[in-house]
Amino acid sequence: MTRTVLLVAHTGREANAAAARRVVLRLQEAGVAVRVLQDEAADIGLTGIEVCQFDPDAAAGAEVVLVLGGDGSILRAAELAREARVPLLGVNLGRVGFLAAAESEDLDATVESLLERAYEVEERITLDVTVLCHGEPASTGWALNEATVEKAARERMLEVVVEVDGRPLSRWGCDGVIAATPTGSTAYAFSSGGPVVWPGVDAFVLVPNSAHALFARPLVLGGTSTVALEVLPSGASAVLACDGRRTLPLPHGSRIEVRRGALPVLLARTRAVPFTDTLVSKFGLPVEGWRGAAEHRQA
Fold first, then answer.
1. Which of 200, 225, 257, 269 could bond to 221 as cystine, CB 3.0-4.6 Å?
2. Which pTM does this prediction carry?
3. Options 43, 71, 175, 243, the catalytic residue
4. Is the pLDDT of residue 88 over 80?
């Protein structure tokens, strides 16, 4: 059976488009069929590739979704890969790239590892979100990084009541509330004062954003918990955003329930990198003077 790779690339930059062309040619040379999205095909500009729409069937039958870009590109590709249960293999051609398995200088080596099937797959927790209006389900969504309830207008604060596992916790006047997975704890939640959670922890975090309340601290909740936010009419109208990509207006009185997602996102890794090393690299943390256990034992 012919192997197939869905290639998703941020081709708005010519350097990225050139990298995508190099990858396509190498995969084709190795006998791997390449599928690309319609809005990226023209920038790549090669023949012999399958062109598909951005829809749930795009990743069907693919071995891997190979992503060239930053975290935004990987989150975009996750919309295609999650339902198809296909792993994402990201190469960071953007800035921070927490979700990527490799950096731009490792692109060729990453493609060779893919061809040799020299990669491992790990599951990342997602969040399922249900919006209820007048007690009836109105819409659903999901997120790999975070689901946020934010005020829709600058003039007023959002007023929400927070509930955990069926019990009221607090009322917050705030700019918004962020529910983030461990994967997303280094993104929007981190910039709002939330904790960094190691990816393997079965938990998610709840972070109030600019809250005016006696108790307004970030919370780390168990993976089986359910959080509910009720949007009160005394505050601003609100909007729900999942991974900053999929948004939905929330009328007053809406109830937003967040729990661990039924489907994880699969991430492929061509080499094992401790999460501590990733933090040091991405945030540029100072580690000068570190000797390590081995050197201490020798001293």
1. 225
2. 0.93
3. 71
4. yes
